[in-house]
Amino acid sequence: MYRISQLASKFGLSRSTLLYYDQEGLLSPSGRSDAGYRLYSDGDLERLAAIVSFRKAGLSVEETRALLASGEGEQSVIRRRLDAIGEQIRALQAQQHLLARMLRVQSGGELPESVDKETWVAMLRAAGMDDEAMETWHAEFERRAPQAHHSFLLSLGIPEQEARAIREWSAAAGIATPAKPRRNFPRER
C-alpha cells in the first residue's frame, strides 16, 4: 500500500492533484491507515497511470472519468480527441503558411494600404485555406479573442450586422458537431 505522498511522487504529481482526483471521482484510496492516512493499492497505482496518460493526451477530467467508468467507448473518446488535435494542427499549419506568405507580400511592398473582405479571403485562399479551414480559423479567433475578432471583422469593412452574424456562427462552430453547415466565403475573382 502507498500513502498519498508516495503515490504522488511516483508520478511527479502534487498531493493536491490526488486529492482533486479523489474529489472528482477519478481515484479514491483503497483504504485508510490506523492513523487515518489515505492508502492506495497497486490497482490504484495502475488506475493513476491510466489517468496520467489520458490527461497528458489532452483528455478532460470528464472524458477521463468516462473512460475509467467504462472500457466500452474508449476508442471513440480517444478518436474524437485525436481528430480534434488533427483539426488544430491543420488550422495552425494553415495560419503558419498564411503568415509566411503575408511576410513575403509585405517585404515586396505588394500589400494594399487597406485590406478589405475580398482581399483577405483571397489571401487566405492563396495560403491554401478552404472554407472549412476558414470556419475553423474564425471559430478559434472567436473562442480566443471575441472582441478582437469583432474589431478585425469591422476593419475589413464588414458591416456591423454581418460581423455579428459571423461571430454567432463562429461561436456555434466551436461547439457544433462535425456536420455543421458550410459558410460561403467569397471566391477569388
TrEMBL record:
Coiled coil: none
Top-rank taxon, per record: Bacteria
Residues in HTH merR-type domain copies: 1-70
Protein name, as recorded: MerR family transcriptional regulator
